[in-house]
Queue: 3 jobs
Job 1
Amino acid sequence: MLNLIKPERLRPGDKIAAVSLSWGGAGDPDLIWRYQLGKERLKTEFGLEVVEMENTLKGSGFLYEHPEKRAADLMEAFRDPSIKGIFSCIGGEDSIRMLPYIDFETIRGNPKIFLGYSDSTVTHFMCMKGRLSSFYGPSILAEFAENNGIFEYTANWIRRMLFDASPAGSADPAEYWTGERLEWTADNRHIDKKMERNGGYEFLQGRGKIRGRLTGGCMEVMEMIKCTELWPDIELFNDAILFLETSEDMPEPAYIGRWLRNYGVQGILGRLSALVWGKPYQGKYYEEYKEMILKVVVHEMGLYDLPIVYNMSFGHNEPMMCLPYGRMAEADCDRQTFAILESGVV
């Protein structure tokens, strides 16, 4: 795993860029209120000044037709010295079409925080290719514009990872979680989502303490990255902790098996220190995914000693932690704990 560059931490008063790198819904007339709510929350909760790039709010139709404009916004956000961080408005399924327009030297030469999840997995792999450590975590339209406020678990992780240059430490699971999907309408904005008690992490196998550098993302999106210049050399998976999760598409367990089987025959799984898995969206296929992971990783690939941690609090359910790419983490299989041993920022 590459020793990725740590970006500089955020401070209250810093300027961050909001970018629409995939779906452009932040600028659609029926959703711009949601974007403005997330923007205001970032100001009141964290003291950040949120600015839009030239094309951020041009709407889903325009941005679908112009991946080069999305990429231009990202490159300009990296180049602008007044911008200290870049936050994704939302995911989608179209970030991959930015690839021909990305200058990796611009990323490498202007290291700063990039935050997002889901389809932002593409941009995280762009950052890795530019040797930059980025952060798998909340988006503006979803978590920062959450009904009745940001979940405190999520907010605490943002403070720990983006504002604090000390080691993050223990990564405890969220006590409660929700996968409820409420339509993004102004009428719904004060409705609380239904929360359920979280069962905590499940250590499916493994012994002792295992350390490795974090990499991974949304599994469906990683399928879009395979065989492109973004897909890492096999050596980058050596002793890594691979974190994986699935989206609101809720792929059937058979797909999980096929994708994992591909990782196995590539030789990726055999190189890992550990495999960690986010709770499936809405808890669907919870047991089926677990069975499929064990079927492929253990019974087919024979990786009887690879630590596997399941039901972690990152990805498409809420609240969520914030995972720093390339930073050292530790799974203690005996104590059944997980920790991030480094800071994400300087």
Note: The mean pLDDT is 97.
Job 2
Amino acid sequence: MSKLNTCNAEALDTADELSSFRQQFLIPPKMDGDQIYFLGNSLGLQPRSLRQYIDTVLKQWEQYGVEGFFMGDSPWLSYHEKLIGTMSELVGAKPSEISIMNQLTVNLHLLMVSFYRPAGKKRKILCEQKAFPSDQYMLETHVKHLGLSPDDVIIEMAPRGDGMLFQTDDIIKAIEENADELALIFLGGVNYYTGQVLEMDRIAAVARKHNIRIGYDLAHAAGNIRLDLHKWDIDFAAWCTYKYLNAGPGGVGAVFIHERHHRNLELHRFAGWFGYDKETRFKMQKGFVPVLSAEGWQLSTPSIILYASLQASLDLFKEAGWGNLQHKQRKMQDLLWDLLQEILQIKPVFKILTPKDYRGAQLSLYFPENGRKIYDALIDKGIIVDWREPNVIRLAPVPLYNTFTEIRNFTQALNDLL
């Protein structure tokens, strides 16, 4: 088989100042070594330090019982404060605008209570067509819960023509055409199927211009792309932590709530004891008084074990440096893009769905024919990518634990299979 022009992969790895972080993760093995794991967009790998972080919590429980909330090196009652600093840096927020809680879809329902307030003719929601199913189900059932019809209320933006990518100008046009009726704009910041990154800042600016609340699902964005949520002036966002943030399957979720909403005591919300004012929480008084930050949206006692799982990963992000990781990711994506283009010049049997100028770690490859066979063959070779019906292979090399040589090996294997 023809060999790709891959001579610089090893040189890039040799020059990589973040290469040692790969050793901080457990790579799924195969018979003759490690597999190539390109699925950080679905489930990040386990940090080697995770057991130590969880064991610390278990030992506190063993030694102090319930007093672990107040005693030990990391009292559980203030554990949240150890997480929000790094998390806020990753998403471009103030620490007070971040709350680590629940899971993604639960958080979206809670945020809808506060930020979707249909009144008069302003009751419609603009979202993208074929959003991740959980978002679709959340919107559908939340609207029904309010006694409204999803068909009447939800406006689904479709990509232009028969394409799969969204044009920012089309989204802006849809906002402006429906501005008098829109109560909320809710979009996925990075499309799970195509890997397209939306121009969230431009869209948010138009929402603000028309005084329409806007929120984003950032499940495929947090820990992946540069975000600037506070500066973009969005109202809210939510994300999971088990993809690029490596917090483990079912890891705790997180939310962003812009600080302008923190002191609005008229804002509707579902409340719980853990969102109550910290200074008077233990007086157990009637009448909800919220923490005047995003923590005021918390409900229940968090899982400290899930907090510890997230901290194990966030500490690695902090050590590596978010800017450094972003720089390496761009170099990895450039190499991957160039090698795939080299294949396509000779064998144009697939298409890169992800737009070159609006991408993060993920690339989605569209195969009109034989895509499933290619996917199965890659899996047999120990190259872990994933398949999305009806005809897309997704892969996402990430800078914390993937290498340039793995990108070279993947593209060479794909070239050989084709």
Note: The CA atoms of residues 272 and 299 lie 4 Å apart.
Job 3
Amino acid sequence: MPEGVEIRIMSDFINKNCENKIFEKAFNVKKGNLPEEFKVSDNQFKLKADFNGKELLLFIYHDVTCFLDPLRISVFMGMSGNWKWVKTSEWNSTKFIRLRLDTIDGWSLLLYGLYMGPKYKIGGFSTKRGPDAIKDFDKFKSNILDNLNKKVFDKPICEAILDQNYFNGIGNYLRSSALYYLDINPFLDARTTIQKHPQIIEMCRDVQLKSYEFNGGQLKDWRSPFDTDYEAFREWVFYQKGNSCKDGTGRTFWYDPKWQNFSPYNK
């Protein structure tokens, strides 16, 4: 957590609060909530958020009258990253802040998180990410089909589907749900699975759209800032249900018990 759906919701949250705001300062916040101002613009600036799978994007617009030639800040949310919109006078009541952006009228956007928390980089990270299934499904699909010869597709589909070079945005609860609802052997190698069941590619999009209808995964450390039917989401998601195992990356995978004898893990 969070997965691509939650990143999209975070971008919605940021845009909702920042739409009509003008910013003036940016701070890198060090351990102990010690702010250190850094320059992102010679002038006051506007801010917009976007998403690319598990990567959240902030765009700093130097001209408050138009949205041209922005500075890009890429944010990786880690395991516990989240955002708050607070009065600037109250910013220090939030712990483990990493980034603070102040408006001219007394509000602040905060990026925070404790263990394995978020990090950001101006310009973007070097880690490659494939196309986003929600924003550009055709490219998402072709990126997978055109690269089926790659070694990653030798792995079981339940493991390969976490590779962000190809399945950008898919994380732990989304993979379990996608494979469960397709009712296919999650331990079959990814190449064979995709050739026999190409609908898995569409499901990588559809399972995210379905979760987005619920306003994201209401699991463990993260709760959506928007109204959500928590019980309906829990009923739908296939997570912490059925059988589980540790995959080759050490992550817990949940699956239909009928596939137990096919599992290459925990043997």
Note: Residues 4-18 form the longest helix (15 residues).
